[in-house]
Amino acid sequence: KQEVTQIPAALSVPEGENLVLNCSFTDSAIYNLQWFRQDPGKGLTSLLLIQSSQREQTSGRLNASLDKSSGRSTLYIAASQPGDSATYLCAAYTGGFKTIFGAGTRLFVKA
Amino acid sequence: NAGVTQTPKFQVLKTGQSMTLQCAQDMNHNSMYWYRQDPGMGLRLIYYSASEGTTDKGEVPNGYNVSRLNKREFSLRLESAAPSQTSVYFCALGNTGELFFGEGSRLTVL
After folding, report:
1. What pLDDT is attached to residue B14?
2. Which string of DSSP letters, residue by residue, matches B73-94?
3. Are B34 and B74 in contact (CB under 8 A)?
4. How far is it, in rounded angstroms, from Cα A44 to Cα A36?
5. N or C: which end of chain B has fewer CB within 10 A?
6. DSSP character for B54?
7. What is the pLDDT of residues A29-66, one digit of tens each?
8. Which of A18, A20, A23 is nearest to A34 (CA)?
9. Contact between A93 and A32 (Cβ < 8 Å)
10. What's the confidence (pLDDT) of residue A40?
11. CA-based torsion, B66, B101, B36, B105: positive or negative
């Protein structure tokens, strides 16, 4: 059974710091991995989608990598800003309309 | 989250009452999903619809029914609400595993 784990559960950093959020999955047989941002009381906003054949995707200050063999994905945020404060979730699509979500990392960027 | 509209955004029910959560899309996706999000439990799939007219159970379907009468709309019905169904419900859609979410419907069952 696929399990997705995100460590740490919470992270507090000063503004301007570069940071890495981690996502690990137990079964390497995934089709893609998606990173989301969720603000309090809001829905999930898609940040990046990495297909299983890809190694990384970039959007602005965000870079997501995928290493299927080791069961890991990372989300790199450059030059963090207070507006980046949110919960970040990763989700692994295993096929058959099934997506397994991590519990998320709650990020707080201090001004 | 434009493109996925959920109603209502908030609802309070008494135990045993029924209600329907509505989801409508304008993104022309075949597949639609209903998830619930609970603290410490993450997101769990309740039901999904691969295409118009088809529905299938997800991880936690008990106590819910769904209806997909057309491509745009996918509704989730609670026939007899229980306190354990207090949660935030999200409608999502997407093909080939990439998901797009609505803003959520926060339901409290007293």
Report:
1. 97
2. B-EEEESS--GGG-EEEEEEE-
3. yes
4. 6
5. C
6. -
7. 999 999 999 999 999 999 999 999 999 999 999 999 99
8. A23
9. yes
10. 93
11. negative
Mutation target vs B (from A97, A98, A100, A106; most B CBs, 10 A cutoff): A97
**Structure confidence at residue A52 (pLDDT):** 92
Q: Is B99 on the interface with A (CB under 8 A)?
A: yes
Q: Which of A31, A42, A99 sits opposite B99 (nearest CB)?
A: A99
pLDDT in tens, B65-96: 999 989 999 999 999 999 999 999 999 999 77
Distance from CA of B80 to the nearest CA of A (A): 25
Give the integer Cα–Cα distance in Å for A91 and A106: 15
Q: List B88's β-bridge partners, or say none.
A: B37, B106
Q: Tens-of-pLDDT digits for all 110 residues of chain B?
A: 459 999 999 999 999 999 999 999 998 899 999 999 998 788 999 999 999 999 999 999 999 999 998 999 999 999 999 999 999 999 999 977 899 999 999 999 99
pLDDT at site B39: 87
